[in-house]
Amino acid sequence: MNSMNDATTNNGDEPEDPESHLQEVVDDVDPDSATEEDPLTLDPTQDPSLFGLREISSLASWSVSTHKPSCGVDALRNLNPTQFWQSDGPQPHLLTIHFFKLVKIVKIRVYLDFLLDESYTPTKMQFWGGTGMYDLVPFYEWRGEEPRGWVDVDLEGVGVGGKAELRAFVVQVRVLENHQNGKDTHVRAVQVFAQDDKTRKSRVPVANEDGKGTNGVEESEAVGMEEPDWMQDPEIR
């Protein structure tokens, strides 16, 4: 059985609830100043390091092998870090992300917090991918102790020609071990990204009749590229 240590006390009388404290801090966070360095920020649109990437989780159906009441897929996909997926069964604990079309994934990350979850924290995870449930193959295994924050999945060499990308319909996360041999697990977020071709701009010269811009130097404007088919909204046939 997983066990959480007794919370520390402020004055010896009332225990401090770490979840309540975290919620208070989250409520005070200014979203405009959020970055990946801030462990309370789960919104990818507020993370400047993700410029040029598009979070594509909405293009897939999500399922988990087991979960406690109110701690399933909805909690896992919620951007509030006080919510999480909690399993309720034997290991391995499985999260399956099934996309409606073939996607080219360039980044996967998982949010874990040992300070809050202790023995519920994963220490060994495997990542599998394929075109369906019957041809999944492992492409990465992660091991760690006391993680806190985003854990990046290494995609180096996964794609054709050694590219750092994964082409798949299905991605599956398997939690194999927890801290201190804990039974159930806590995962607070999983995000999947593809290249956002709308942010890839080509530069073409734009000039006045004298060949110069309004400030006396050559100017250019951004011309957006068309969105590729695999990044468009899925068609249900």
Describe this structure in words.
The protein is mainly beta. The protein contains 3 helices and 13 strands, in the order αββαβββαββββββββ. The strands form 4 sheets. Strands 2-4-9-6-7 form a 5-stranded antiparallel beta sheet, with no helix packed on it. A hairpin with a 6-residue loop joins strand 6 and strand 7. The termini are far apart. The N terminus is likely disordered.
Instruction: Tell me the structural class.
Output: mainly beta
C-alpha Rg (nearest Å): 22 Å
Mean pLDDT: 78
Q: Helicity level, as a percent range?
A: under 10%
- How many alpha or pi helices? 3
- Kindly state the number of beta strands: 13
- Largest sheet features: 5 strands, antiparallel
Distance between the termini: 45 Å
Query: Which sequence of SSEs, written as H and E, runs from N to C?
Result: HEEHEEEHEEEEEEEE
